[in-house]
């Protein structure tokens, strides 16, 4: 999927280039499901004006879900949620110092009124953020709903009934 594509329904934003190896997992899922997205580096601390502009324009640009990943003092998802009504899905990026628990706590404890749908720490959380965004879009897109159902069925099908020696 062309990350510069205009009018895409999902924004994948992250605090730093260093978050991309994690956030790429969300992009991979959206590629598999045929969901359009854009990717941007938007830091709450290093580029606060960029964050504000992105949030200010998000709904008018047609974004229907924003996946926001950050690590450490991970204020990006919450600040984005405070700036736009577009649903924000937060991904706590794993950190070296505190293993991402710092990121998780920074994202999950939002005050009443400004929710962030917070995923698990790291790659699994980013992949699930892609699936969550697809699920939100699938509510009003039957073709995507069918692709998502097929994706889920294929995953279930891939799980063996019995363990085997590796
Ligand atoms: C956060 O600080 C970013 O989201 C990233 O997870 C973390 C470290 O950023 P870098 O120092 O690697 O750019 O803002």
Description:
The protein is α/β, with parallel strands linked by helices and 166 residues long. The protein has one domain (10-149): Rossmann fold (3-Layer(aba) Sandwich). Helix content is 43%, strand content 15%. The protein has 6 helices and 5 strands; from the N terminus they run βαβαβαβαβαα. The protein has helices at residues 20-33, 48-57, 76-83, 101-108, 123-138, 142-157; strands at 10-14, 37-41, 65-71, 88-93, 117-118. A 5-stranded parallel β-sheet has the order 2-1-3-4-5, sandwiched between helices. α4 (101-108) links the parallel β4 (88-93) and β5. α1 packs parallel to α5 (123-138) and α2 crosses α3. The longest helix is centred in the C-terminal third of the chain and has 16 residues, at 123-138. The radius of gyration is 16 Å and the shape is globular. The termini are far apart. The model has no long low-confidence stretch (mean pLDDT 96). The structure holds 5-O-phosphono-beta-D-ribofuranose (RP5). Residues 15-16, 18-19, 43, 70-72, 93 line the site of 5-O-phosphono-beta-D-ribofuranose.
């Amino acid at each position: 999927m062309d990350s510069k594509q205009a009018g895409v329904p999902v924004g994948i934003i992250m605090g730093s280039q260093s978050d991309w190896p994690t956030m790429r997992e969300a992009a991979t899922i959206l590629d598999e499901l045929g969901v359009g997205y854009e990717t941007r580096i938007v830091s709450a601390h290093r580029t606060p004006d960029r964050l504000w502009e992105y949030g200010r324009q998000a709904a008018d640009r047609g974004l229907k879900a924003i996946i926001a990943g950050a690590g450490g003092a991970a204020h990006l998802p919450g600040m984005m949620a405070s700036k736009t009504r577009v649903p924000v899905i937060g991904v706590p990026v794993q950190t070296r110092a505190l293993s991402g628990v710092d990121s998780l706590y920074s994202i999950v404890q939002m005050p009443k009124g400004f929710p962030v749908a917070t995923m698990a720490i790291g790659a699994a959380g980013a992949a699930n953020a892609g699936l969550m965004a697809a699920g939100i879009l699938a509510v009003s897109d039957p073709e995507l709903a069918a692709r998502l159902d097929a994706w889920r069925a294929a995953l279930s099908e891939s799980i063996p009934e019995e363990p085997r020696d590796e």
